[in-house]
Amino acid sequence: MIKKLFLINIFLLLFFSASVSSSETVHVAAASDLQPAFKEIEKIYEQKTGNRVIFTFGSSGLLSKQIMHGAPFDIFASANKRYIEELKNRGLIADDRYYVFCRGRLAIVVNNENSIPVNINDLIKGQFKKVAIANPEHAPYGAAAREALIKAGIWDDLKPRLIYSENIRQALQYIQTGNADAGIVAVSLVITSNNDYTLVDEGLYSPIEQSITVLKDSKKIKSAEGFIDIVLNGTGREILKKYGFITMGEF
After folding, report:
1. What average pLDDT does range 150-157 have in this prediction?
2. Nearest to 222, CA basis, from 95, 71, 61, 62
3. Class (C level, CATH) for 2-103+209-247
4. Of the N and C termini of the chain, which has fewer Cβ atoms inside 10 Å?
């Protein structure tokens, strides 16, 4: 009897050891605006597969440079498909394949001491002495904000008051901490916060096309594809909608 129990315990130990050793850690580089949605998708993925996800969130342009210099990510989710296309042209994405899975939207946010603008043109009012946007040179939301301000005809007037953040999440932090009076940020970052916001007319900026791919040097392509599958399909799409993204089939 003792021998039998011993063998059963050994079997269980080997079984659980095999289960643990077969799990993988998937490293995901993702645009900052995706953080709230992807953290929810992470929980579903981990429950479904037993795999772990480690995220690095930042501006799409800076993340793509890290990938070009050999950063060991398995997945790249960019707020602008241009950065993924550049990686594709360099032969850095698996099977030369990527997916446009949703569109982001711009919102105007103010700190609690100011009233929310009715539209983008109100940003030139004197109460907004500092206005935050992400750096247009490497952050897609910053580039979209610049485009919207130019089309609205207030870029030149507002430019001396602009402060640039490294990514769109940092722009929101500037506003929330009072380092900026207002700013143009991602809807996905404010939709569940205490900040009031005004949507920026989508006719003022080019579509912010969120795209995702498995990177060619990944050693965990199947596991990475499993994460992307959740992003692209029903559950992931509902989560993305919750955070204000326009999902596939809606554009």
Report:
1. 98
2. 95
3. alpha beta
4. N
Q: Return the structure tokens found at 202.
A: 């989508």
Residue 146's nearest CA partner among 170, 124, 164 is 164
Q: Of residues 159 and 112, which shows the higher confidence score?
A: 159
Q: How many angstroms separate the Cα of 126 from the Cα of each of 122, 159, 164, 165?
A: 9, 14, 19, 22
Strand partners, 104: 208
Q: Exposed, middle or buried, 224 (CB in 10 Å: 0-12/13-18/19+)?
A: buried
Q: What residues have CB less than 8 Å from 184, skipping those under 6 apart?
A: 106, 107, 108, 109, 120, 131, 132, 133, 141, 145, 148, 149, 171, 200
Long-range Cβ pairs for the range 125-128 (8 Å, 24+): 127/181, 128/161, 128/181, 128/182
Token pair 């992400």 is found at 134
Q: Does 104-204 carry CATH code 3.40.190.10?
A: yes
Name the pTM for this structure: 0.88
pLDDT at position 68 is 97
Pairwise CA distance, residues 103 & 208, whole Å: 5
Across the beta sheet with 75-78, the strand order is 52-58, 25-31, 75-78, 208-214, 99-104, 246-247
Checking DSSP bridges between strand 162-165 and strand 25-31, what pairing results, if any?
Answer: unpaired
Euclidean distance between CA atoms 32 and 115, whole angstroms: 26
SS3 84: helix
Residue type, 4: K
